[in-house]
Amino acid sequence: MATDAISTKPSSDPADLSRYKANTDKFEDLQIEDFIKMMVAELQNQDPLNPMDNAQILQQMSQMQSLNSTEKLNTTLDAVLLGQNLSNAGSLIGKTIVGLNDKGKDVTGEVESVTIVGGVPRLIVGEESISLNNVRLILPPEATDGTDTGTDTGTDTAASETTDSAAA
User: Fold this and answer.
1) Residues with Cβ < 8 Å from 115, sequence gap 6 or more?
2) At 106, is the secondary structure helix, strand, or coil?
């Protein structure tokens, strides 16, 4: 039996968007320490005749803690989602799928391996790379092994149950 492999090697796929630098908001780079430094500077330079209210300071600290907690939660959820998607993609190794490549062309074939590109699992089918999101159909094993007799087992079962109940 062949060993199923999940690969995380970089892709040479021209549609790999991870190699392009994204335009990011500079506020995303700020850490909680940066906010604390700004608040200390604000406290040191405040008007001594009109100092900042303690409630405002506590409110700002609470907002910073909330932002930090939300950021950690988002990071954790992103990791869980990637793990789930990777597990789903890995379960397709050895199965025949129908999907669209990045150029919109239909691709049918057996999934050979899985790779991660830009945080998204991609299925390797022959020379093609298909995003997990672009899988349109997962074919059952009997549809691809050539032994399909054309018999609908669901109809046979229903007919058998009807015969059994009529005999009783």
Assistant:
1) 6, 7, 8, 9, 11, 121, 122, 124, 129
2) strand
Report the CATH number of the 1-6+55-145 domain: 2.30.30
**Nearest Cα residue to 28 out of 75, 91, 92:** 75
pLDDT in tens, 15-43: 554 554 555 556 666 677 777 788 788 87
| Phi-psi map region of 109: left, alpha, beta (phi>0 left; psi -120 to 50 alpha) | left
Per-domain residue ranges of the chain: 1-6+55-145
Once rounded to an integer, what is the mean pLDDT over residues 65-91? Answer: 91
- pTM, two decimals, is 0.51
How many Cβ atoms from other residues are within 10 Å of residue 30's Cβ? 12
Tell me what pLDDT residue 161 has. Answer: 46
The C-alpha atoms of residue 99 and residue 97 are separated, in whole angstroms, by 6
